[in-house]
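Example (one chain per record):
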Amino acid sequence: MKIIKSTLLGYQSPCVISPTVESENAHLNEIVSWLSEERRSLEKELQRKGAILLRGFKAIQGAEAFETVISAFSSQNATDEGSTSPRTLVQNQIYTSTNAPSYLPIELHQERSFHTEFPDKIAFFCDVAPSQDGETPIADMRAVYQALPLSLIKRFEEKGIKLRRRLPTKNWTRNKAVITWQETFDTDNRHEVESIVEKLGWQLKWNRFSLEVDNCVCPASITHPLTGDRVWFNQAHVLHKTNLLHWAKRYGSFQLWTIALLAPIFTQFYYYHHVFGDNSEINSADLDTIRQAISSQEIRFCWQQGDILLLDNIIMAHGRRIFNGRRRILVTLIKG
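Predicted structure:
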């Protein structure tokens, strides 16, 4: 099989791997065989650029083909235990990327960076391309670390950060972005939840209509185990009570302004909120600085049906832009 390596116009990443005209009809087994043979060089490419985009292979159609292709990179799936993202299982370890409503943006982040256990890689598959907007932007968090003020980095690294959550027993709002504690931990048994939380080193408090969970303190940045690069690695700018107002100001939609104005009521039963490791509040100006640094490194491209986007989950953050119409992006988390 013959392929072409390129990049997207104006960007150094991702590395785009496409078939030549004579190879675009290659059988799925042939694609997987090539990926397996080239795995070592592709791993190095992933470490350099943070992202690889497979595009133009006609045989890559549907969740089963996606799972088969990803098996060429790793057969180990990472756990999604205690996740913050509303997802639906499609098959085996393939999920919908998120069930959050299309009018809600998802700020760029590395998967499970609020946790001490996180996937090494994350892969997305475009099953149905959005007709307008709905991109999955990415950003190199090595560059973000370099762009942040040293005083901010020092403040975050010295204190560490911690995620606090209030998870409802029932989703009264019927908003798909809201997930209950039963959905978060995939059980309605309180004793099982307590066992999971204890194993993870978290703390919990049962309320009448909700569960409060405090994650353990995590570092704000980490060193990549293979490249040695220092990387900004947390979701303080994403999972914070001020985010609703930030989204409303940035995107200006009626739905977002409505949610933002109702936030004081909404957060009585549901919220995600980061604080420093010493339980002190994070300054909103710092969060804006982080958002600006990430925005300055953002890479955006339109999905094409059959695309597979493989990311080094430490190096590269990902998000989702608002959209209209149909869109179906699948995801799997990879360990190793």
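Caption: The chain has two domains: 3-78+91-100+118-142+299-334, 147-294.
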